[in-house]
Amino acid sequence: MNTDHLALVSLDIKSAFDNMNCSKFVILNENISNADFEVYTDGSRIEDETGFAVCILQENNNIENHIYKLKGHNSVFQAELAAIHSAANWAASKNVSINIHTDSLSSIAAIKSASARSSFVNNLKQDLVKIKHLVDQQAKLATTTGVDTIVPAPRSYVKRILNKPIIKEWNDYWRQYNSTSGARVREYLEHVGDADHYTFSCSLTQKFHLVKPADAHKRAWFQNLINNSQALNKLKEAFRISGDVCDSLTQAV
């Protein structure tokens, strides 16, 4: 068997675990509601030919296309990843925000994985982390100096607005509850709160506290929570204690 041609091929070297700088999860957020561009990526392989395309749309108008031909030894998987990489680099070079649309579930899984050993995949992940950091900085800047844009208020806004007065009214009632049981419980608990209070900060449930996630990671935190039996047991115990507190307030003197 003649394998001389392999000497001319650049191989995707597997990264040693000790040298992996990207052995962490990359959080892929849902679509940005006010992204500057919608970018569609795809990879293809026909017989021994491989390539990928990046199509850039703005307000449903196809304004730019990038097409690249790869080598015959490259796989469709690599083409799909290269397309995503190209789209991300294009956005970074233009300093714009984009939504990347891909139908490659294997590429998404590789980017999300904390144990990918492919240098090609990890280089892509490192660039995505850098670009995401840049986008995060720009997003923070937009909160003070961005162009005013009208977007419908989310349902969470209503919850946030109503939550504060409800908790305040509950605490007012708590402090004024004139009974022996109420006075007894207040010796241990100065104020009442919502589910977050009992899950993350209440002194009575300290033994069962969970680590509070950053706002940007709440969705991923919840997905991990529902598959973590130890965390679920802590949550159950915290809610049991909060239920006991509420029950004590309704007991007869």
UniProtKB/TrEMBL annotation:
Species of the source: Araneus ventricosus (Orbweaver spider)
Residue stretches making up the RNase H type-1 domain: 36-126
Higher taxonomy: Eukaryota, Metazoa, Ecdysozoa, Arthropoda, Chelicerata
GO molecular function: nucleic acid binding; RNA-DNA hybrid ribonuclease activity
Superkingdom of origin organism: Eukaryota
A UniProt-annotated Pfam family: RNase_H
SUPFAM superfamilies: Ribonuclease H-like
CDD domains linked: Rnase_HI_RT_non_LTR
Name the record gives this protein: RNase H type-1 domain-containing protein
